[in-house]
TrEMBL record:
Coiled coil: none
Stretches the record annotates as Disordered: 396-418
Any single GO BP term: maltodextrin transmembrane transport
Top-level taxonomic group: Bacteria
UniProt-recorded name of the protein: Lipoprotein
Protein family membership: Belongs to the bacterial solute-binding protein 1 family.
Ligase recorded as keyword: no
Any GO CC annotation of this UniProt entry: ATP-binding cassette (ABC) transporter complex, substrate-binding subunit-containing
GO molecular function ontology, one term from the record: maltose binding
Amino acid sequence: MRRRLLALLCVTGSLVSGCGLLPGDHGRTTVTVWLMKDSASKEFLRRFTEDFERTHEDLRLDIRIQQWTGIVEKVRAALKADSGDGPDVIEVGNTQVPLYADGGRLTDLTLESMRDWGKDTWLPGLAQPGKDGNKQYGIPWYAANRVVIYRKDLFERAGVTRPPKTREEWLTATEKLNSGGTQGIYLAGQDWYTLSGFIWDEGGDLAREQDHTWRGTLDTPAALRGMDFYRRLQALGSGPVDADEEHPPQAGVFAGGKVAQIIAVPGLAQSVLKQNPALKGRLGFFPVPGRTPGRPGTVFTGGSDLVVAGNTDDQFAATAVVAALTGAKWDTELARTMNYVPNKTDLAGAVAGEEGVAAMAAGAAHGRATPHTPQWADVEADNPIKEYMTRVLNGADPATEARRASRRITESLAPDVG
């Protein structure tokens, strides 16, 4: 019978071995866990540990907080280390799993996912990037995605009595709001994550794999329809066509008081209020509208998965930690504590009392991630989608520019054979 496990949390920056025995532990196994900075509060980790200790017997946790900067190479190096020298459980960005699954350096968790963890109800934007072929390596932990943050007072002034439910209602409402010196929406011309959602809603993709070859697909009719909707919406404000949402930071623009809507994660509202406290009580949230009233728009889902290193000394111990952190009890507790979306669609009710997070959860149910290939990072490094968007918004022919951008995406996705 598999042994029961006990956890004792040590949040530390020092280096220790992975799953193994430490002096004075009286036979207890130590599991090293890498979590990213600000993913979970110290108080959450303390409470998790206390509960874990009551239900397990012989496990000690050494949790190390990591920085996002430089993490890819650090994780890759750890996965190549000798057994027992690195982390056993690692938090990774949901779209990073393909970078680490290459070469068989992660533990296959397909059986546990199907038998014990209810994978059928996982958020698709976290679950799909965690797969490599038919094998599940990344286990969804938490999600975040964009919603519409809006000014309730400006909506009321313009006669918009409720948040729009469809794209066409959204355009109509935004046109009403775009008057009297107020921008109906501030949407930068190179916000390609938002564009991705519109493309997915139309049935298109940024890129697709066929016969083991990835190709850019911005030039498909569906993708072009998504770009056309973006163009119509972006025109109902004065967002720069040659910059993304961080140049200038859209929180500052929204705080200026002359913008009715932005598309952002709900947490950005705190930055807005810090810059303009007079907006307190005036901000609301709704999911990005979809094509029909009953289904919110598809959105890019960010967040984290947990993986088990292939070179762990004790797969059972590492897997037990993943099971606890991603299970319903502690996953919903993390979501409430940090204002995240829980990892399963049937857990959305846990955050229903928080308007921004509830709007985020509604969108996450239809979330997607970037194309599932390690080479996608090369696309983002020299992002042709941004240039494509700017050219179209400046009046260039969409089909011509989409073909140009698709060719560049295809070139970036070609495997490196050098």
